[in-house]
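Question (not urgent): is this output format expected?
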Amino acid sequence: MTDGEAAASPGMPEHAESPVWVKSERQRRREAELRARGRRSISVATASTIVVVVALIAGITSSPGWPRVQEFFFSPKAFVAALPDVLRGFLLNIEMFLIAEVFILVVGLLVALVRGLRAPAFFPLRALAVLYTDVFRGIPTILLIYLVGFGIPALQLQGAPSDPVTLGIIALVLSYGAYVAEVFRAGIESVHPSQRAAARSLALTQGQTMRYVVLPQAVRRVVPPLLNDFVSLQKDTALVSVLGPLEALRQAQIHKDLDFNFTPYLVAALLFILLTLPLARFTDHLAARAARRQTGGGTA
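Got this back:
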């Protein structure tokens, strides 16, 4: 065998070249058409948005009462004057939100687990859990804040909290804990019974099955609705202002009462929006990712 034959032998290739895949003309036309369609969609959406925004601005600013609204709701001077105090109060809103969130998760999960107990001996606990969720989901949050904030100090119990911030957090935990408990319960019940059967076939106890099999799947499924509840929670911290703590809404109200200008409320609203938008977009991202995972369109 000559050197040339050895080099050309299939068993001993020196530089084997893989075939190069080339898009067909039809594929290239299809991709170009999709790109053009995407550009047209973006252009139409942008143009329609600009038209709607301009129309709204023109309609509002041309209304007869706009100069007075501009003076009492969009005053730059009042905005700058109120911003430091409202921002300082907003930090208290964030603190209440973060503290309440931890306790709400604990209360909600415990209530959901208790409602899942099936042994007859646990019937009193199940009844209490059902009563808790029914009662506290039925009471408006602001009314519950009044009841807790003024009712507990009126009892004059030994060691009962009297700080309005603490009382407001307790009311928020009681209210949102009932909602979050139902979210957790829905997630637990959404896990297919075959998962429990498989766990029991591996000799796992009921507690181990719940801890290692059911809860991890349930928690993953309920993260988007939980985040939606927490978006509402961070806004409802403003309701604690009825008890007197100097949070954002209360600070805005104080500035409003000083010069009879409502611009401080706009400051508070913008701060809440700046906190809500990232959390809302993150919630949408998690929901879309979960949908792709269920349809096989992507990985987690």
